[in-house]
Structures
1.
Amino acid sequence: MNNQRGMMASLLAVGATGAAIYGISRGLRNGTFQQLSQTVSNALNSQPIQQMANPMLGMAANQPLQQTLSNQNNQ
């Protein structure tokens, strides 16, 4: 009985892999992925996204400096 479950899981995994490959090949053939990448690129370059990202990038850029300063203060 346990062997049948393993076989069914393997068949499902192979089926899912085949479906993914089929979908990707169809998307490449009809140009859907090019449209999707352009849409994502446009969305990431939009003004509201950049306004949200700039403070986060500033915090990430200052973090090593803050760590260095806090390490010097602790010594």
2.
Amino acid sequence: MSCNMSTPATWLFVPRVCHTLHNSVRGNSMLFKHVYLTHFDKPARTNVNWEQNLKDLVRLQAVCHQPDIQTKRSELAFVYDTVTEALRNACVDGERATSSTTHFYSRNAALLSRLFSTYDNQYAFLERSFLYERARAELPHAGTFSSPPKKEHQMSAKLHCLYGVPMLYAQRSPHETRQGKMSPFACSKVYDIRQYTPLTRWGPFMDDGSVSVDWEKVEAILTSGKPLLLVSGLAVISPLPLDEEEVVDLNPLDLQDPYGVTGTWLRVVCFLDYTDFFDFNFSAEQALPANIPRRAIEYGEATRLILMRITIDRIDPPGPEDGQDLPVVHFKGVSRSLDDSWDENANSDLTGEINAKVGETGTVRLTPEGEVRWTTFSIFNGQERWRSESIQLGGAKSAKGVLGNWFDKDFDPRGPTGPTAFWKISERSSGHTENQRNLLYPGGVFTDNPNYDPDYESADDLDAGSEDGSDDDDDEEEDDEVNIEIELLVGGGVQIADAQSAL
């Protein structure tokens, strides 16, 4: 029998045929390695338990094909561990997924994508957080936040985030109704200023000072509406590769950068009218204990689309409070709003950090648990004004996006604050045109925008732009703006990829 012609599951039954085969297969690491690499990605690391990994992936498929949902639900911890390990072992180089993308095809990710594409598996594993239990009224009437959050809630939320496509309804039915929408519950968490404390760094972290990711906060951003609704469930923006004949002047620091910072990024910033924000957080009826969730809300959110062009400033070794596997990367750049160039908050200079400590400016790093943390500071007239803390889904160089929160750089307890997300859309950080002042995007110099101001003078340093303000437009007008900008991006050459799962 040739293992090249067999499925992984077949080989797990071989030891049961006879004692001879049992003794030949048991503990045969080289055999399990060969079978594993025939069907799955070659891990970048060397310390891999080939037999256990193969058995776990076979069992994962059996669990996901189990018809009884309650049986599936009891396997959440196993599914979480196996998916996490499979993604750690996923392909990091090789052939591109398609000719028009820069990310690599992964057999591990393709398998997970198939397994979690069904509603039963999504319900059993991806919709188990406090957020979904609350939306489905599965909690007591006075359901409270757990401190610390329950492990099963966090595991489910992380799996959902790694899947990358938000589950926008609490229940699936042929007629999904307004009452079943997740966004009111997600917005209730995202805009609840009690979530933002010095211990959480005002970002999507646990309220214990550890800088450990609170995946239920990240999940709330994922499902809150406009940050991901622009592309999720519909499409995911993927980076465009450089033309084969194009010559790019690489900064020597780029060769040392493990995060893939340099390039052009599309950013989404959302916020409430401050009157709504204040009413939600500070009215008499909102004087609730910290462990009681605020009411679900459907205020109209304003949205800004921003292009960021960033480059590396310097690279330092990790500090004692950082993850030690990767260095600290400092970056700088410029940002430009796609829709409100007349707004003084919409264009800015930017300095930032992937994983910086609170209070620092212009630096970057990993969290102690190994997640990629982005911190950006928006600078206006030479002064820092806004800050954001975000987590990159899937780790360094992942195309799934960076999700987090923006807020006043001085941590104003009155706010405002809101969700933000950004994706890399091009490896280019600058263009080879005569006008180097203009922010470039994959289709060329950004001049097709009717709001483009050719007299705008950008500085040498920069960030993510408008992270505040009010908007008098109603939801329909906002949606029209979003549709126009998406069409503009597509027309300009930004690839819109099929949004199968991001796993």
3.
Amino acid sequence: MELVFDGGGAGGANNWRSQIREEVRVSRVSVLSEALMQALSPDKPETLTDLLNVAVRLESLIFGVAVSEVDYKYKLYTRLDHLEGISSDNHLEDISSDDHFEDISSDDHFEEISSDYQMLEPSTATLLRGIFSDPQSQSIQVQSNLHRVLSGGNTKATAPIGNEEKPCCDDNDRISVLHESILHCIMSFMPAQDVVRTSMLFRRSPPLWTSAPCLDIDIDHFDMDRVKFNKFAKSLFEGRGNANTLDKLRLHSFAIDAAKYWIGDAIRLHKVKSIDFTENTRWEAFYLDPEAISFSSKYLQTVKLTNVIIVTSVFDQLSRECESLENLQLADSTLCSPEISSSSLKTLEIINCLVLNHLLIRTGKLVSLCFKDTRCGCTPKYIVRTTSAVILCDLSNAKSIELPTPVRHVAFDRMTPGCPMFISLTSLILGEWCLSNKFAPLACFLKHSPMLENLDLKLKVVEDTQCFSLSIFLAEDRNSY
């Protein structure tokens, strides 16, 4: 496979990057790829993401942000140490080898569910315990459990007549007669595998899990077993077909390349309204491949992404082709786009992200902006800190702005005396960067925020590296500013 490197550029003849031969970079990519494989320690590698592409992107990122050849080598070795630490942790984990989720559409697995009812919520576990108990003694207990679960535990049992105990309800299936919307509402609070198990109790065709409006698929619920997780999620999406819509998809993955296709199907086929995707933060950032995932949707309202790499084309789709998008949260991610612009976005949160370019935020309807970095020091994985500038443009509707992040500087675009840029701003949180250049950034905010009521400064004490907050409640009389 031919490797194509991106990042850094050769620069001039005296640039240190031009002195590193391509075969040297190829060998380092190979070392990174081997370290990634050892960190995962897979029994079946078919569930892994394309490790070679991950290694190439990782090396290119380090090559691009390093300031010297020494810094480049240091960052490489630091990342290798981090991957070796993951590998050591994996050897200490005791992962179960049971697999009950190879094909969730098959009735053969119904009998296997009985051994797993301990994993369910208490009410569901009680219900299943009654179903799989001794057939000679289950009638009264099952009916009682069913009625109690459906009534929230407040049902009074019918008094026995004579020496014969009577069940609190007849032999009919009371749970299956509930309206589908009620059952779907109950399922929305369950993990996806519990939704599948519970659906088998209902006499419905097709099973209710195939039309559940909310899916919570978390690899933590599978003891971090990527093989079981991949098989379950694949069967789940295949069993839903193309007609059923999704209100919310929560997907927590760990080095599963197929996750990008599941996200793409949720947007394209199921018209999902809310996506919450997290790649395990111990692992490398998940690449949102624009060829596999299209965020172009008129239904998408909320997007939360954690530990991902977002390129310009993905940002363009979120900004220009999601006309209903109102909430966007990016955490522990790498942002490769120079601009976030949207005509519908109301809430924007950027937390602990690596910003590779100067970032222009142009969101006319934005009400709340949060841009912060809560990490203390440079961890092995996040060896590059945010140093780019943030440029704020057209935030006349913003009521709350939080900018404690250690960015290089914040710039303001298109500010005119007759139309204050922050005319609706009432709450402002800033970091110590606002005190630079003789308090010029702070003075600029105060000058262009006529409605500001609360100013909170997050300052750092150098001696003990602790932070304290200074809150200032501004007087109604703003003539002094």
4.
Amino acid sequence: MEDKLQDEKLRIREWVQLNRERMIEMLSELIRHDTVNKVISGSEKECQEALCMMLEDLGLEAELYEPEQVPGFHEHPAYYPGKDYSGRPNVSAVWTGTGEGKSLLFSGHIDTAAVAPGWQGSPFEPVISGSKLYGLGAYDMKGGLVASILAVKCLMDLGLRLKGDVVIESVVDEEFGGANGTVAGRARGIIADAVIIPEPTNLALYPATRGGALWRVTFRGTTGLSFNGEEIRNPAVDAARFILFLEQYEVLRAEAEGPAPWYSGRKEQLPIIVTRLEAGDLKSPLCDVGPVECHVDIWVECYPGVDEDQLREELLTGYRDFCGVRPGDGLALPEFKRMIRFLPGSQVAADIPLIPLLAGEIESATGQAAEVTGSPFACDAFVFNEYSDSPALILGPAGGNAHAPGEYVDLDSLSVLIEIYAGAMLRWCGSSAAEL
């Protein structure tokens, strides 16, 4: 049995090496399609259609479906209103097993973040330098999606059959707290015994993810010139004080160890980022008085187990302490307005069998012990871990500059990832005695 397993691993590795150009071509084709998430709407359709054709050409049963046409989509407890899904289909494909095996779902998203300023050349034209492939979405997360597809094709080409089904889905609207594409898949009934999300992890295994909130924080005041002793309160000053608090509080939070089991044993920074600052009449050529409102947009991350109300109260309590006042002492407190859905952190149980299985495949493919820890970001994993019986783990390629100019994926790591995924499918879904 052990000899057979080693033989399969060697055949998989050889296939991956021989199909490196196919991997590059497939990823390059996906990158050439503009799938930028426009927050309310998106432009994923042409890429999803091309991807669906790829999957069919590889011999998989693939389909396109519109989220709005899924019965129960709006009624799903994780559905978030206010988005337009016209012409934004999801893609789902299945490789049907022979039966009596566990199923595995690879859930990826096709949309990308906005084009950040500073790109050298077109972000939609892939460029290869050494082992790096540059392009918008190469790292987050078209590369991981391609790896999952080619891992299935690898086993098919090698004549290896699985007992359990393998499902691959490409969803729309993940960026900017979308998640409704993933919700539509669950409302449609696309389920599996376990889920792998190919978000970029640098080949680490993440059984947990952070959560986060994007708020517009507003301070209000009075304006004018105090010619007659009027009391003037400039909200920009209050906002400046709040920003100073945020800077200090981010440092303070980094001194505390994260929760067990996936964030314990280390201290790390939970980002609090001021993403936009707005005050005054921006249409006026000049302003000689203070604003009546000041808006500070902030992204604040949190660990699993913290909800939106707790996170907001944590900030308000910390701000009062920073200012040295108690509630009711006249401190101008900010108003919080949600800009996107609150993304809850999520985690899976430590005894899920897929964790040691994937860790073993990582070690086998890389020759190094797997890093198993909590992720430094939020993603759609909560839809599975909080609203379904399918535990979701995150495992993806190495690269850099996600959501930034010069985004790239490391092609060597992408090849290794195909090997890891293929080996994991054999062990999780079960290898059938029958061969193609």
